[in-house]
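thread: overnight batch results

M.L. [08:02]
morning all. the overnight job finished for the chain we discussed friday. pasting input first so we're all looking at the same thing
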Amino acid sequence: MRIASFNVENLFERARALNQDEWMNDPGPDPSRWSAGRAALDGYAQLNTLLSKQVYSTADKAAIVDLLRSLGLEKSDESNLVILRKNKGALLKRPRTGGIQIVANGRGDWIGWLELKKEAVEEVATENTARVLRDVAADVVVVVEAENRTSLCRFNEQVLSKVGVRSYDHVMLIDGNDERGIDVGLMTRSSAELEAIRSHVDDRIGARKIFSRDCPEFHLKLASGEKMVILANHLKSKGHGDPAQSSARRREQAGRVREIYEGLKAAGVSHVVVAGDLNDTPDSPALAPLIADGSDLRDISTLPNFDDGGRPGTYGNCTKGNKIDYLLFSPALAQKVTRGGIFRRGVWGGKNGTLWDIFPEMKAAHQAASDHAAIWADLDL
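M.L. [08:03]
and the structure it wrote out:
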């Protein structure tokens, strides 16, 4: 059987701020729009943290005003990238003389939230995503950054057939902790029946949730009668926020994945896969709980008969520093791996998309299936 992991970067709809960096690969990009996207994600996270506080201090109110301005919300509740939703009570006033006044004294004074604006993903890009799955032809696929189960089912039932591939028999996705609609899910053929799911969205360190999205346990029964558990992951991004804090958060998440894995082993589960976008390199301190520190998990890229196509990375131009997508196998499964590889035809490599062979349907960077390549492995099961 073949197992794969693929970050699809949303199928039909994506937060507009998340799309800003894609323009950097287009002819004549506007760097200010890319910077605005990154800044909006940082501001969005900071403002949501402040707005959730039970009491707003004078300093909090000043910071809220500054962040509202930076997000383009000084004169309106809607900007190019974000929307301030207000249902009941009042957060602020905008005097005719200008400026913003925060009138709420804490979270209990108003009901509302901050929302990232979304835009449609181009149809050609979605079809190229389907072409990646068609050509990889995996029996089990961990899907990263799908917006919800409804979209994943629609993609499975309607788009895969357009590129000549049969839809998957089982599709599952549980909404995680990320408000932007970038969740982790699973698609399998009938040869891998989904028997049980365990979500870890509420795993915590103190009052804080550990996972940025989730680390669902997908318990599968294979046609051979053997059992397999897949831990699907998308760890904290490097894309925004303080780098040191982001790295520390990824290490916490990797540590918790390791605990879950060790718990499965202790329960007698020998066939375990940790798969997905781990957002860091194999030698990083953040991933040490999974790849070093006494872990017996084996990275597919270190096993015999793995073909990386001459480039070790899985993201962007696929350099060594962009190896961030993984298939990690328990020892019993690692012994059953016969070969593996990285599929890049859906990624726009370099300024002109010429670093490797790409789909003929990809005429520009925005038509790429994803900035991530798919990674796959064949197992003798």
